[in-house]
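debug: dumping io for the single-chain case to check the tokenizer round-trip. Nothing else runs in this session.
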Amino acid sequence: METSSDRPGGSRGPWWARITVALVVVAVLVALLGWFGRLPSFGDVFGSQTRDRSGPALLKSLQDMHRYEAAVGNFQVVVDLEKDAAFLPDAIRGTRTLYVGAGTVSGYVEMGGLDDGSVTVNADRTEASIRLPRPVLGTAALDPERSYAVSKQRGLLDRLGDLFSDNPGSEQAVQKAAAQHIQDAARDSGLAERAERNTTAMLEGLLHSLGFRTVHISYG
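debug: decoded output
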């Protein structure tokens, strides 16, 4: 007896099963092409041109700074940030970004709160004592000229989502991670201690040039 599977054009399985298999095959091909960097971009095909139609920058506020920036540290970190989806393979849903972040952190002494009790001078103006707050570290600032993404791997659903996103391929997460790593490194680098030594040397040199023979600088 001839069955439906033996007849030409006969059913070879449910239609939804064939669609599922086709989607899996496409996802695997996209993942492989993306992995080896062979997936062409539309910009390469049609060309691209950049026009800057930005408006003028608006001044929002001014702030007086009463600090002495005594030291600056330059840092670089390689961030490997991976985001996986539960129960889905990386080829379908998931991202992994390799990012090189370079930035600076400053060490400074805040002098805006000094009062008359912070500076004492003897009667013949040969000895001076200054008490300052301890140096603190500023916020890590990434340098866009030296920070860049080395590679980006995205699943099929993430690639499709970028087509409808207002901010496709956003690097905000890796930039935030890079800034945090740089901030942590600055705390362990001795930058605050260096800022203290440099501030002391600057004030001692300044007061000696003004005729003071003995200078005491303390922090607290």
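debug: round-trip ok. The radius of gyration is 31 Å.
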